[in-house]
Design a protein that fits this description.
By secondary structure, the chain is mainly α. The protein has helices spanning 4-8, 49-73, 75-100, 105-136, 139-166, 185-203, 206-215, 217-226, 233-271, 277-287, 294-309, 312-342, 346-360, 362-380, 386-392.
Length: 394
């Protein structure tokens, strides 16, 4: 339909425009650009899905490298905090029992930590006293051990001379000057004094950390859950509860297994006539709990003492008993007591021991299993990470 306003403004026939006015512009239809032959030419390179994947992978690698660097640099602090967490889980039932007796939680935490410190001091004192007594009252053992060491040294010297005879050595340069560094105990102690002082200072914080973790446990748990969004708080609460139950079961289970191995080792060492069999049995029993290295560490106390007292047959029998107890504990008792809580396959445990041992040394080996178990629980309760939890499980 025509616009009446435009009809009124229409010009007479033969006149293109009004006198003294500009020509009326003729509307031009917009020109539509032809589509490019290359569909990705007009697209921004940063929006390319392949580029986005590469950028995401690079960010993940950088973040993992940063986290590993931080964990290695701050390993002393992290190990101390984790040890305090484990000890707080051990003492939590004691504090709960005192709280049920209407003792304030702060007072109960102080009493529990005080009992822990006193128990550790008594164990250290008894162990040190027994070690000194063992070394002072065994001259025959020292003579036998010195004879064994001299025999090994003579065999090594004979092997070295035989090697020099078979493989002639290269002619020495007469003008060469041999410089030998003189190592003194004073310099060696001075070099490691800073490391020892830092370690002792960090360990001195453990009782205080345990006390605050026990006295502020409810507040810390509630505040930790509140860090998550509303829809994830229930998952966070369940995950923290499962991790707490797993760590508590791990500690209690290892303690029960260690008591069984200690009792069995004491009985075996006592029947074979080893001195200080009660002390050696406890050491062998609890050292056997260390994954993979435990069987070798458990052999050391009995082997060292057995060199001076045992015959060849009883020495072999002692080694067989220690190895047999270790295999029985790891293959029967460990799955029976801790299998339902951990649910980790041997490959995941081995990789975790390798990783944490490389990162934190001996303490990493002790903390590898609970850390891996906590990581599996986290993966099991997060939808995106559930396949990784299934991979670590049985």
């Amino acid at each position: 339909m025509a616009d009446p306003l435009i009809d009124d403004l229409s010009l007479p026939d033969g006149q293109d425009a009004l006198p003294g006015s500009d020509p009326v512009p003729v509307p031009v239809s917009p020109v539509v650009a032809e589509p490019s032959a290359d569909p990705g030419a007009s697209r921004h390179p940063d929006r390319d899905p392949h580029v986005q994947r590469v950028q995401a992978a690079a960010l993940v690698i950088l973040a993992a490298a940063a986290v590993l660097s931080l964990m290695y640099i701050a390993k002393l602090i992290l190990v101390v905090i984790l040890m305090a967490v484990l000890l707080s889980f051990v003492l939590a039932p004691v504090v709960d029992g005192l709280t049920n007796l209407r003792i304030p939680r702060a007072v109960g935490s102080f009493l529990a930590v005080s009992m822990m410190v006193i128990a550790i001091a008594l164990v250290a004192y008894v162990s040190y006293a027994r070690a000194l007594d063992f070394m002072s009252q065994m001259p025959e053992y020292r003579t036998r051990l010195q004879r064994i060491v001299n025999d090994i040294r003579e065999r090594a010297d004979a092997l070295e001379k035989t090697t020099e005879t078979v493989l002639p050595s290269e002619p020495e340069d007469k003008n060469a000057v041999t410089i030998r560094e003189r190592i003194s105990w004073g310099n060696l102690i001075g070099r490691n004094m800073n490391t020892v002082s830092e370690t002792l200072l960090a360990i001195s914080f453990v009782p205080f950390l345990v006390f605050f973790m026990l006295s502020w446990r409810d507040h810390v748990r509630a505040a930790s859950v509140m860090l998550f969004s509303m829809e994830n708080r229930n998952t966070a609460y369940v995950t923290l509860s499962l991790i707490a139950a797993m760590i508590r079961s791990f500690i209690v289970g290892n303690f029960v297994i260690g008591l069984f191995l200690s009792a069995a080792s004491m009985a075996a060492f006592g029947l074979m006539g080893l001195p200080y069999f009660y002390f050696l049995g406890v050491m062998s029993g609890f050292l056997s709990l260390i994954p993979y290295l435990g069987v070798f560490l458990a052999l050391l106390p009995s082997v060292i003492v057995g060199l001076g007292y045992l015959t060849t047959a009883t020495f072999i029998l002692t080694c067989a008993i220690v190895v047999g107890l270790h295999l029985f504990a790891m293959n029967v008792l460990y799955p029976m007591v801790l299998g339902k809580r951990l649910q980790l396959n041997p490959l995941a445990v081995t990789i975790s021991l390798l990783f944490w041992g490389w990162l934190w040394g001996a303490m990493g080996l002790l903390l590898a299993v609970p850390l891996t178990g906590a990581l599996k629980i986290i993966c099991d309760n997060i939808g995106r990470l559930r396949p990784y939890g299934d991979w670590m499980g049985e």
